[in-house]
Design goal:
mainly alpha; single chain; rod-shaped; 144 residues
């Protein structure tokens, strides 16, 4: 209904304006027209300020969170570096132990503990032609 009312009021104004023009005497006040200043649209500052403050706040919160995460990762990296150093030291100790156990003296002692006997008359096999060098004799307990 309001659409019809405004269009009928506009039509009435247009009709009165055209009648006044025909008569030759135009009085602006009779037609209902008046001068208005040009509308200057100015953006309101409040929404812009709010958006800028929100962006700055989000940036600061992001920086704080990133800094906290980096600091936590730094502590974790330091802990892992200490663990690596400890494991490296342990690996070196184990390598020394393996080298000691693989030495000929250690192998001979362990073989004697297991009841093996040392052969004082070894024989050798030449692989190129398959000949046996020396006279093989069985090992006897008590020979050293």
């Amino acid at each position: 209904m309001s659409g019809r009312t405004s269009s009928s009021a506009l039509l009435t104004l247009q009709t009165r304006a055209s009648e006044s023009l025909r008569e030759g005497a135009i009085d602006v006040r009779d037609v209902g027209l008046r001068l208005v200043r040009p509308v200057r649209s100015r953006a309101r500052r409040a929404p812009f300020v709010v958006v800028v403050l929100l962006v700055l706040s989000a940036g600061l919160v992001g920086l704080i969170v990133a800094s906290t995460l980096l600091q936590a990762q730094s502590f974790q990296q330091a802990r892992l570096d200490r663990e690596i150093a400890s494991l490296h030291t342990q690996q070196q100790a184990l390598a020394r132990e393996v080298d000691r156990l693989h030495s000929p003296g250690s192998v001979a002692n362990r073989a004697a503990q297991l009841g093996m006997v040392r052969n004082t008359n070894p024989a050798f096999l030449r692989l190129s032609d398959g000949t046996v060098l020396g006279k093989p004799k069985p090992a006897v307990r008590g020979n050293r």
